[in-house]
Specification:
Elements (H helix, E strand, L loop, with lengths): L9 E6 L5 H12 L4 E4 L1 H4 L6 H11 L2 E6 L1 H5 L3 H14 L8 E5 L15 E2 L5 H17 L37 H20 L11 H10 L35 E4 L24 E7 L5 E6 L4 E5 L3 E5 L5 E6 L5 E7 L2 E6 L4 E8 L2 E9 L12 E6 L2 E6 L2 E5 L5 E6 L4 E6 L4 E6 L6 E6 L5 E6 L7 E4 L4 E4 L3 E6 L1
Keywords: Membrane, Receptor, Transmembrane, Transmembrane helix
GO biological process, one term: signal transduction
Protein name: Toll/interleukin-1 receptor domain-containing protein
Length: 491
């Protein structure tokens, strides 16, 4: 039991595999005895006749913390437990800095999947395992309580508010009642305010041209957001016409699969390029030529269009940047979880994780138009990090998904399956062979291999960059994306 009992009722979701049901049920009963914890277990909370998938997703969204219960069985299991973990990871991306909402809980000794390795786990099977778990839950509860007790003071000088993502409900409940003045003060202040407003109107130094007011520009920048656009159509085209040259292909007006995605161009000054320390200049090794900070929050994919780079971001944005890191434009993604990207002529191909669709997007100036989409197969996906990537080779799309590289036809049908022995994290094609970023002996030991189109590994090199989420080839250099940084690699 923690030293001080939190006043907040902590909502805890128990994510588990059916093989671990007995152990998780015992954990549930144990947590119920803590009067400051409300554990959520499907068999206890779901009522017959309820839409169970909706209720599970709702419970995940409303939980303060998610316990991912792990065992050798759950780590290797396909199915809904993997979906729950994927959903939990999606929610975790939008948590404020320092507010972790996932605790991997090892019921027995097992390997932590790479996608969960960034969170500190608890060995529940050890003697003090339960006490350590309670300590972690207590710290989480106290972090949620803190914002409600923060003293609020009136600033002595104007300040621009800090923008942030969605905060927990408890963090936003700061009462403003103590600052409401009494009626007598209002009667005194009201005439003064009216006089000031009239005076300012008469002597407005900016005239009637509102665009001259510098504050307009400031607040326009502060309030500019990128709103995710979700594709509502679920129709799957039977045929996709793939152009053989880089010409613009217009989708039929009024087509059910066509939606306009309007870009919000943004520009930034040149960033300072800093070389990767400790890289070798050996001609047989891969070295970092230079790197720059990635725009947005977390990069999830990268592509090369012949001149510039395209970067997908987990805040539902697709960025176009030049080779120096300057942002040329930002576009809304057709789904909230864009990942792998590749370029084909005048079209950008994108895979999204949330609903596992591959989208074909036509680039027309500052607009992206969805021409078509089809489901992306997740067959063979098992426990471990799942990062998807795309590559265009001749007239076909190639799709990497964990332990397999697939060749697809124009309708998304699988033509070729290349089984890969390690977890794939990035895929690129240089005109003769694939470049594949993948795990080596451990998730933290990343290498880059060249692979023939038949699936033969030709050579393997130590990677100067770790935690890669995507690769792209520009004709002479290999580009590697991590969540926070973009690297140009000399190979």
């Amino acid at each position: 039991m923690p030293e001080t009992i939190p006043s907040l009722k902590l909502q805890v979701f128990l994510c588990h595999a059916s093989e671990d049901k007995l152990a998780v049920r015992a954990l549930y009963e144990r947590l119920k005895t803590e009067n400051w914890i409300h554990p959520w277990l499907d068999e206890e909370e779901l009522i017959p006749g309820q839409p169970w998938r909706y209720e599970v997703e709702k419970a995940l969204e409303e939980s303060h913390l998610i316990l991912v219960c792990l065992s050798p069985q759950s780590v290797a299991k396909q199915g809904y437990v993997q979906y729950e973990i994927e959903t939990a990871l999606d929610y975790a991306k939008y948590m404020p800095e320092g507010m972790s909402n996932i605790i991997p809980l090892k019921l027995t000794e097992c390997k932590i999947p790479r996608r969960l390795s960034k969170w500190q786990y608890v060995n529940y099977y050890e003697n003090q395992g339960y006490e350590k778990l309670l300590k972690g839950l207590s710290l989480r509860a106290k972090k949620l309580e803190k914002p409600a007790h923060v003293a609020v003071s009136i600033p002595t000088a104007p300040s621009i508010p800090t923008l942030s993502r969605t905060l927990p409900i408890e963090a936003s409940r700061i009462s403003l009642i103590p600052f409401i003045p009494s009626k007598s003060i209002l009667l005194i202040l009201l005439p003064i305010i009216l006089v000031l407003l009239v005076s300012f109107t008469l002597i407005n130094p900016f005239g009637s041209n509102s665009s001259a007011n510098p504050t307009n520009t400031i607040f326009a920048q502060l309030t500019t957001t990128v709103t995710p656009v979700r594709v509502t159509s679920t129709s799957v085209p039977t045929t996709i016409v793939i152009p053989t040259t880089a010409t613009n292909v217009s989708a039929p007006e009024g087509s059910a699969t066509t939606s306009l995605l309007t870009a919000t161009p943004t520009f930034s000054p040149s960033r300072t390029i800093t070389p990767q320390p400790g890289t070798t200049t050996s001609p047989t090794a891969i070295a970092v030529a230079f790197d720059f900070a990635a725009p947005g929050s977390n990069t999830m994919g990268i592509a090369w269009d012949g001149k510039n780079l395209w970067l997908s971001n987990n805040d539902a944005t697709i960025f176009q940047v030049d080779t120096q890191g300057n942002t040329l434009g930002s576009f809304r993604s057709p789904d909230a979880t864009p990942e792998g990207l590749t370029w084909e002529g005048s079209n950008l191909w994108l895979i999204t994780r949330n609903y596992s669709f591959i989208h074909r997007l036509q680039v027309n100036g500052v607009n992206l138009k969805e021409v078509s989409k089809y489901p992306a197969s997740r067959d063979g996906v098992i426990g471990g990090g799942v990062i998807t990537d795309l590559e265009w080779v001749d007239q076909n799309l190639w799709y990497s998904n964990q332990y397999v590289i697939r060749k697809l036809d124009a309708s998304g049908n699988i033509l070729t399956n290349l089984a890969f022995p390690k977890n794939i994290l990035g895929l690129a094609w240089d005109g003769k062979k694939f470049w594949v970023a993948h795990e080596n002996k451990t998730p933290f030991d990343m290498v880059i291999s060249t692979v023939s189109i038949e699936g033969k590994i030709l050579a393997t090199f130590p990677s100067p960059v770790q935690e890669i989420v995507g690769l792209a080839w520009d004709g002479g250099y290999l580009w590697a994306a991590t969540e926070k940084q973009i690297y140009k690699l000399k190979v």
